[in-house]
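Model it.
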Amino acid sequence: MTKLRVGAAKADISPPLHIPYLGGEPRYGEFAGIHDPLYARATVLSCGGQSVGILSADALGLSTDLLGPGRDFIAEVRRRVAAETDLDPDGILLAATHAHSTPDTYGILRLWEKPECRAWFEVFAGHLAWTLIRAWRDLTPARLGLGQTRVPGVGANRRLRDEQGRICSRGRMPEDATIIDEGCCDDSLLVLLVRREGAAPVVIANFACHPVTVQVQPMMSADYPGFACALVEQVLGSDSLCLFVQGAAGDINPVNDASGEFDDVASFGAMVGGGILQGVGQARLATGAEEVVLDAARRVVTIAARQAPDVDTARAAREEAVAALARVSRGAPEFPRLYGVARAADETYRLAQFGSDPLAAEVQALRLGDVGIATFPGELFCGLGLRVKERSPAPLTVIAACANGCLGYLHPEEAWEHGGYEVGMGAWCRVAAGGSEKLAAAAEDLMRVLFAR
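Modeled.
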């Protein structure tokens, strides 16, 4: 087997300020400035005639339809990379950190319908492809080492269930709530350290927690993953690269949910970044492997779409709700209720626009020596991620959520029984009950294939 070679590249992907972010109220907003830049970080590993490429972007998501209907954003980026390198599309992973103070690349606002946004998405696709191509051109002899630690105190499950069966959020608890189920949380942190001959090191870090500390306000930010990666790169040297892979954080939020404070971003970033550096230290103490098995496989799984009213019905309900709201003043007693009805009708209309046809969802698996990476095109819930890890034949397993597409929350069937925001009637909930388990089973099967051959 030929020895391992690894390349790395990084690019600033901060968009023009007019590219909208996905807000709460209002739902649509434009940035006022950049608090910290957004980056795409990529690494390519090559050994034994096989190569894999991994890219992580400081982005809310990577929806396949960013370039509009009939085009596949993920496939086009892969094709551009494959045309310039020896990378096979099956071995290219495109992931988002899921930072929320970034443009709506998740697909909820249908920004491809705006010419100025669609033009930037073309540029965005080029940036991602070129970053991977540059990483491939940077291939250098290397050794791969592993480190593991835990970082408690950063994330917690946000779906607390009380004795009445209600889903309650931390910080917004009903006075009469008695919590009986706090849900699961995965505070494990896995680090892959690549030590390269005559070149700066590369770090791949995997941790699970929503980057919503500064959700959502008009200063662009990569949130705690950006701070953590910058900290690691500062410590290891300016030419080093720290690539963050978001884990199964669909129901995991920072412990002080969406505080909006950049001091909290720094605190969480320092905790996670410190954990990454601890893992780097562990990996450095090990010899490291010069020869590793690299492999990749992917599968497109057909799953049912969450059912919504047809577009015409949803549009009519939205128009009726907006008209009813317009007839009352903001100070009227009925305004809050009518506002809620109009907001719900608007979100239902957004969901209806996606249609009810079955969804094509990609699941990918990568093997990097003893490490298996299972990808999911959405916000996988923690419990499902833990299940995949437990059933995986890989000695160590990474969950890469918000990867190779973005279909919203990927929740287990029991989440539908308890309700809550994540299963609400909106474009963030496009997958029907049972679909997430189907994707998890496919990921487990692909991992078995990779670690059996």
